[in-house]
Every structure is written in C-alpha cells, then in structure tokens.
Amino acid sequence: MMHHIVSVSGGKDSTATYCKAIERGLPFRAVAADTGNEHPATYEAVNRLHEKTGGPKVEWVKADFSREIARKRVFIENNWRRHGVPADIVERALDVLRPTGNPFLDLCLWKGRFPSRKAQFCTEFLKIIPIDQYVTRPLLATGATVVSWQGVRAAESEVRKHLKAFQRLESHADLPGNFFVFRPLLRVESIEDIFAISRRHGVEPNALYGWGLRRVGCFPCINCSKAELALVDRHFPEQIERLETWETLVSEACKRGHSTFFTIVNDPVMQEEWSAYLASGGDPTSMADFDPTHSRFGIRRMVEWAKTDRGGRQYSLLARDFSTTCNQWGACE
C-alpha cells in the first residue's frame, strides 16, 4: 500500500505543497511538528488549513526529551564535579534540568546550548525525527511504500538546486517498506507563484508575512536576519521576553554557566567586548560573573544591535518601517 505524507509548517512553501497534494485528487496525510517555538499565528494557520481547503486535518507530532534530560542529570551528578565544574554550577544545572513539555526549550536544556548556524540541530531533533518516529517508520514497518512530500524549491539555495523532484532514499533500509521523497515545488522560482497556489484554494499567507517576516517556521528562527529581529522586538515584544527567560534557564543547564539564543559573533562590537572580558580574567562559569555576562551578551543586547548600522556602532539615523516589506512577498495584496 502507498501512503503520501505532506509535511506542513505553516509557511508559504509547505502550505503550497499541501494544496498541490489536494490537486492530485487522491488521499494523503498531513503532519506538522510542534517545535514549541512558534507564533500563535502559525498554529492557527496550520490548524485551519483543512477548513479552508477541504483537505485532511493536519496531525501534530511533538518531540519528547524526558529520557535525554534524565540521562543528563545522571551524567552531571557522576562527572561534572570530577572534571572541575564548580559546585554552584552543578547544583543550578540539576535544579533546572527537568522536562518542561516545550520541545525547543527541553532540547536546549538537554544540549546545554541553543542551536546555531554551525550546529543547527533543531530541525533534525524537532521536526525530522518526530515525524519519522511517529509517522514514517510505523508505516514502513508494515511494508508500505511512503512518499514524503516536501516544500523545497531549487531557487532557495545552491544545494537545493541539485536535488531531484522525485527520488528513492535508502535511509530506512532496516525496514521492509520503501521510502520516497517528492518535491512538487522544486522548479517553482517565483514567490508570487507559491502564494498563488495557496490562494486558488482559498488560503491566504500566514499573517506573519504581513508583518514583513521572511521566516515563520520558528519565531524567531536562529537564522533570522538583523531586520527581522528588530521587527520581532517592535511588534512582538513578548517573544523577546520568552527568549530572555529561556536564556536564563539554558545558561543554568550549561557547563560554562552561560548560553545565548544568538551567537555573539554576529556583532563585532560584542565579539570585541567578549574577547576583552575573557582576556581581563572574566570567568563566565563563576557565580559572580554569571548575571553580568548574561545581561551583557544576551538577547536584549542582540535586539539593540539589530537596531543599529555600521556593525553595531551607531543607531540608524532613519527609522525603518519594517511593516512595508510585506509587499515583496505579496502578502498584503
């Protein structure tokens, strides 16, 4: 038996992929992974997709890191003190290392850090693995053929330019079923064409595009631009407050005693300050330095950097009106 599975995130490409599956005229399942770092508008866009199109209701899956966090607690208890980690750091880590039920936060607590461009483990652990664990593998275990529909476009990157629209993958060779990937949007170049696919099924773009955001899969994404970060702070300050809380929690679960949502190397001024801080004998693992370090290099400082020009050295003389940038995506038309 063949099963078609459409991955949905609430963004423009996955929504268009869902609509393309409807146009095929045959049954399919739609699945979304709840990362725990989404804006309410994205949850609404996903949850109402079937109402607007008449397609299948999107099924949610969610990663659970309870076991990983429990194993980390045991590891900390048995190893950190022996490796010279200060007792106060150990106690704070053990105190905070408890599952919260939020996949993104729990993943970062387990890892003791936030994802970054060079260590972008969030997509794998929060999206790929949960869908594979709860949907793909159970079907393949029955001997079925699974076709995974993915909203990938060649125009997005050099790597994606060389992908095939349809291909068989050997990643599940341990199971009796057959696994294929289908990319129906691969050769669609225009973003306007992507929105048009959804609109002919009565689906308007995720409301976040109307605010000028280019990424809506996570809110904010660790890869969001400087302008987008300033926009988030301007229109959705509660999201910044949440990240500030998360930074405090993850810092306490980190052996270094310090972890930030965005890497400080994005800002040359902060990078210089960090180097000078360490050169002067500052120790981010000490209790005395913990709070000052966090306030100097955390999300609030990055938000201020996002409002500047000239590498963070001066504030922009002209206030940017980010709300007008939605036009480039066709989201306000």
Word description of this protein:
This protein has 333 residues and is an alpha/beta fold. The protein has 2 domains: 2-63 and 120-210, HUPs (Rossmann fold), CATH 3.40.50; 68-118 and 219-315, no CATH class. It is 44% helix and 10% strand. The protein has a 6-stranded mixed β-sheet with strand order 3-2-1-4-6-5. A two-stranded antiparallel ribbon has the order 7-8. Helix 1 links the parallel strand 1 (2-7) and strand 2 (29-33). It is globular, with a radius of gyration of 22 Å. The two termini are 42 Å apart. Residues 285-294 and 317-333 have low confidence and may be disordered.
Could you give the order of strands across the largest sheet? Answer: 3-2-1-4-6-5
The CATH homologous superfamily of the largest domain corresponds to HUPs
Give the N-terminus to C-terminus distance in angstroms.
42 Å
Order of helices and strands: EHEHHEHHHHEHEEHHHHHHEE
**Shape, please?**
globular
Question: Concise description?
Answer:
This protein has two domains: 2-63 and 120-210, Rossmann fold, CATH 3.40.50.620; 68-118 and 219-315, no CATH class. It has 14 helices and eight strands. It has helices spanning 12-24, 40-47, 49-53, 66-79, 87-96, 103-111, 122-140, 158-161, 191-199, 226-235, 237-252, 268-279, 287-297, 299-306, and strands at residues 2-7, 29-33, 59-61, 145-149, 166-169, 178-182, 308-309, 314-315.
Furnish the topology, listing elements before pairings.
Elements: E1 2-7, H1 12-24, E2 29-33, H2 40-47, H3 49-53, E3 59-61, H4 66-79, H5 87-96, H6 103-111, H7 122-140, E4 145-149, H8 158-161, E5 166-169, E6 178-182, H9 191-199, H10 226-235, H11 237-252, H12 268-279, H13 287-297, H14 299-306, E7 308-309, E8 314-315
Parallel strand pairs: 1-2, 1-4, 2-3, 4-6
Antiparallel strand pairs: 5-6, 7-8
